[in-house]
Amino acid sequence: MKDSDCIFCKIAGGDIPCTKLLEDDAAIAFLDIGPLAEGHVLLIPKHHYVTVDQMPPDVAAAVLKHLPALGRAVQSAVGCEGFNILQNNGPVAHQVVGHVHFHIIPRNSGDEFRFNWPAGLYPKGRIEQLAEAIRKELATRNL
Ligand SMILES: [Zn+2]
C-alpha cells in the first residue's frame, strides 16, 4: 500500500533518492537530511502506515528488528556516547511526515537536543484504574 502524496512512500519506492543504509522487503533506513546530530537515521516501513498503532504486529517486528544493529552501527560510525530512538504519532506529538518513522538520534554530553520531561505523580488509586482500562482495551484487540 502506497500513498502517492507521501514523501516516505516515494523514498521507499525509489522515486525520491535517499542516502540509504539498509533495505529489505519490509523496511528501509536512511540518513535524515535535516539531522538533529550527524548520523541521525530514519527507519521506516516500506508500506504506508500513518501511525505505529496501524502497523500489523508482523510488520512492526520486521521493521523494528533493525533497531539494535542500526543503533550499534551509528554509535560506532559517529562515535556518539548514546542515542535516542524517537517515534512520534500525530501532529500533537510532533509527527511531521504522516508515514511511520523511527528516529535514531546520536547523543553526546552537552549536545543541544533537549526533552521537556515533566514527570508527575498519580493520585492514590489512579495508576490501578488506568492499568485496568488499558488491560481491558488490550483484551479486546486481536494481538
Ligand atoms: Zn507513506
| Share of residues in helices | 25-40%
Question: Helix/strand/pairing class, anyone?
Answer: alpha+beta
- Determine the CATH superfamily: HIT-like
Order of helices and strands: HEEEHHEEH
Number of strands: 5
Low-pLDDT stretches: none
CATH architecture, by name, is 2-Layer Sandwich
- Termini separation (Å)? 21 Å
CATH fold-level name? HIT family, subunit A
Question: What's the number of helices?
Answer: 4
The number of domains: 1
In this entry the ligands are: zinc ion
Strand order of the largest sheet: 1-2-3-5-4
- The shape is globular
Determine Rg (CA atoms, Å).
17 Å
Nearest-integer average pLDDT: 95
Question: What is the CATH level 1 assignment?
Answer: Alpha Beta
User: What kind of sheet is the major sheet?
Assistant: 5 strands, antiparallel
Question: How would you explain this protein's 3D organization?
Answer:
It is built from four helices and five strands, in the order H-E-E-E-H-H-E-E-H. The chain has 143 residues and is α+β, with helices and mostly antiparallel strands. The structure holds zinc ion (ZN). The site of zinc ion has 6 residues, from helix 1.
Summed up, what is this model?
The protein has helices at residues 7-12, 57-64, 67-78, 126-139; strands spanning 20-23, 27-31, 41-45, 82-86, 102-107. By secondary structure, the chain is of the alpha+beta class. Strands 1-2-3-5-4 form a 5-stranded antiparallel β-sheet, covered by helices on one side.
